[in-house]
Amino acid sequence: MIYSADSTDKELVKIAKNNPEAFELIVNRYWHRLFAYVRRISYFSQEDIEDILQEVFIKIYRYLNDYDDTFAFSTWTYRITRNYVIDEIRKKNVRPQTMQLDTEELNKILRSDLDIEKDLVTRDAIGALKNAINRLPQKYREILVLRFLEEKEYVEIMDIMQLPKGTVASLINRGKKILQQEIKKDAQL
Amino acid sequence: MEKIPAKNIVDKIKNEKIMPQSHMRVHWKNYLFWSAWVLIMLFGAISFSLLIPNLLDVRPEFLFRLGIGQYVRILMMTAPYLWLILLVIAFGTGYLAMRRTRKGYRLSIIFISSVIVLIIALLGTVLHLSKFNQHVEKRMLRNAHFSDVTFPAHNRWSRPRDGMMAGEVVDVSTDQIMIVNLNDEEWIVTYDHKTKFDFLEELHSGMFAEFIGKKTGEQSFYAEFVRPLPSHLKNRRTRAPSLTVPLPDEINENVL
């Protein structure tokens, strides 16, 4: 079967089952996105993330027959990546460290519909936001990353986190409130 | 930007001869959860079908007679708890099994709960209409261990102190009915013009009836309602079957 850089994810998946070479295109297509995602939801170093992603892609290949094409392929890869990262966090018992979000990403959160820009009256708005995000519990940080940095739709978040829509909506809502409260607390200090 | 090790990954796949796992191996958990769910629904439906006679046994006229509080109290007091507990277990485990299926997480609690209730109720009603529940009851009644815990509905009609009693009519006079109740005790049931009878034919000895009223003394009862005892309760005894007293006619037949 012929494939090229223009082939869709679903076509590549079908071909890759018999021809691992086609899988190289999938890896190239998703490496940077998944790298940024793992960096945003975890505290792993760049080297650790690279190792994790290599294992994640091997896992994706091994489970290609599990892929249900009623989902977007990207959603499925995010789900596998998330589950693997959570397992790694548990295994390595990584203690919370400083978040690896860069200034551009923090600005993106500021400009998002989180509606926190007006609360940041201090000069170090980015610093305050970074501190607030660092204090967020993992589940809220994770869901806010998916919603406001990865810009995923509710349905995609549902499928990545394997949660019903109501739970996703309430986690986002609660996460936003906690973030706003943390920022207000910092502003008052 | 970091270099993408796509080539390394593909080389590893080829060198280690990694293959995508077969459909069956990948989906076995999902098949397992669906199978468990189907079995649990069936189990819940059987429990529900065994509850139906008990629910039907407490009829609307009793509700008016006893008032809702007393009605619910008697229903709860005599409810077949084994089936109720099994029904609740079926509901809980059915919910978890459905949630663990491939796309179960997409469904809301309300949707899953409604589907489970609907399936259990519909399938349970079908089992009741096909008399499957009676077959199960009979089989379980044969087992002494089960009979104590599975048929407390019968006890409802052995509670003269709570105003409910049933038994076989032995003799009928102008103001009294003599019965042998379901515990094989002889009782005198009095009645008057206020007593409501719900029989198509005149009450006579050999008939089974249920009485609602009040206990007036030792082995005596005043009836406000008298109606036929459902056939499925006629042959039950709260005590061991050996306590059944043979009627004089039966003794004579045996002697002859």
Question: Layout of SSEs?
Answer:
The complex is a heterodimer of chains A (189) and B (256).
Chain A: H1 9-16, H2 21-41, H3 46-62, H4 73-92, H5 103-111, H6 125-135, H7 138-149, H8 154-161, H9 165-188
Chain B: H1 6-15, H2 23-57, H3 60-77, H4 81-99, H5 109-129, H6 132-141, H7 144-150, E1 158-159, E2 164-172, E3 176-181, E4 186-190, E5 196-197, E6 208-217, E7 220-228, H8 231-234, H9 248-255
Parallel strand pairs in B: 4-7, 5-7
Antiparallel strand pairs in B: 1-2, 2-3, 2-6, 3-4, 6-7
Keywords summarizing the entry:
heterodimer; A: 189 residues; mainly alpha; 9 helices; elongated; B: 256 residues; alpha+beta; five-stranded mixed β-barrel; 7 strands; 17% strand; disordered C terminus
Description:
- The complex is a heterodimer of chains A (189) and B (256).
- Chain A is elongated.
- Chain A has 189 residues and is mainly alpha-helical.
- Chain A has nine helices and no strands.
- In chain A, helix 1 crosses helix 2 (21-41), helix 2 (21-41) crosses helix 4 and helix 4 (73-92) crosses helix 8 (154-161).
- Chain B is α+β, with helices and mostly antiparallel strands.
- Helix content of chain B is 52%, strand content 17%.
- Chain B has nine helices and seven strands.
- Chain B has helices at residues 6-15, 23-57, 60-77, 81-99, 109-129, 132-141, 144-150, 231-234, 248-255; strands at residues 158-159, 164-172, 176-181, 186-190, 196-197, 208-217, 220-228.
- A five-stranded mixed beta barrel of chain B has the order 2-3-4-7-6.
- In chain B, helix 2 (23-57) runs antiparallel to helix 4 (81-99) and helix 2 crosses helix 5 (109-129).
- The longest helix of chain B is centred in the N-terminal third of the chain and has 35 residues, at 23-57.
- Residues 238-256 of chain B have low confidence and may be disordered.
- The chains are: A mainly alpha (189), B alpha+beta (256).
- Chains A and B meet through helix 2 and helix 3 of A and helix 1 and helix 2 of B.
